[in-house]
Design a protein that fits this description.
heterodimer, A: alpha/beta, Glutathione S-transferase Yfyf (Class Pi), Chain A, domain 2, four-stranded parallel sheet, 13 helices, 46% helix, B: mainly alpha
Amino acid sequence: MAENNSDKNIVYYPGCTLHTWAKSLSDTFIESFKKLDINLHELSDWSCCQAVFPLARDNIMGLVPAARILIQAREHGDILTTLCSFCFNVLRRTNNAIQTDGEIRAKLNAYLEEDYTGDVHVLHPLEILKVMVGFDKLKSKVTKPCGNIKIGPYYGCQLIRPPKEMKFDDPEDPKLLDMFLESIGCEVVNFPFKVECCGSYQIVQGEDMVADRAYAILSNARKNGAEAIALSCPLCFYNLDTRQNLITQKYTDFSPMPVFYFTELMGMALGIDEGLCGFDKHKVDPGILLESLQKSSDTQEHVTVKNDQNKLGVN
Amino acid sequence: MEELSGQNLNACNQCLKCTAGCSFVDNMDLLPNQVIRCIQLGQEDEVMKSKTPWLCASCFTCVTRCPKGVDLSRIMEAIRTLLLRQGKEHINLSGSEFKLPADAPQQLFVSGSRKLSG
């Protein structure tokens, strides 16, 4: 399967936030996948997925936008991928509902005048990296390993739960992001709060609640030895990085902790243009960590050169 | 409420795993297990005036851990849905008291408005 990557069209659904607010998440993903010889076809004329999966049993209308996206994707390939955890949750659960619930399938198809049965595979980029690329191959493509940075992998909610429908990983102790970070050379720090909720959209009801959640998560990561965390969801990034000032205002014992999208670290490791990482948009400056990354990569290159010299008999 | 959520509320035996793992219990007036208990006892009025359903962010931790397979996130949504369909919005997006943070992602606005307003 991995041999024919370049023949496989993967349909990419960016969603409302990825072209603008979380541009670096999208750009570093696309450039990294180019380096891995994976073709992405961005869906044209896409609409909002509605961000939250409708949980009221009679709200079938709420499934229409996601069903439309799945049907559009089917025209271009059999794999649909998306980065935002909310989009991923909505698209995968909607597809699952169409596959398993005859009433939902019939009503959606009748409304949309289609015959969709849920045959598109909704895959997260981390799953594509594991299954279609392989972490060993990813590791072999790394030109600047992320040495020296101790990273806590943060999964949050929508990526992994509810497990019966998402079937992403162990919901209490997921490892996929851990494995990814290891393969690009990070020192992975396990921390129990990696599956806690970041506060989601609740900042509209009160900043304190979100500050408390973010403080609990980042402090727990730090207590276990992390210098930074890596994640995949723009809203988690907002609560944990953009509004980290709320934590420092409320908790005097807290010192800032950098937050990365996992694709930014992948891009750095694969040697893409660093400008795409948008580090200037991060509220918590990852500068010191990036300097240490640069140093580690210089050391790595130095060692490689030295080894080559040895092979050539030069000393 | 059972019809809208698709859940059998009598399956709950009040083990409190939902409440033990909930991120927002500090801000709730009814604990997650108490929401179910109230409905079991026919005290729907308590639930409908509680702020707990609006604080539930649908993180699905309780769903993941419930040993009886009760999907509490669907019960919370059923309560919100019943209220919203009566025109009782929790947040009025066009109201002057609502202030969306200027630096927020689109994702926050879409998800928050879909959960908290009609």
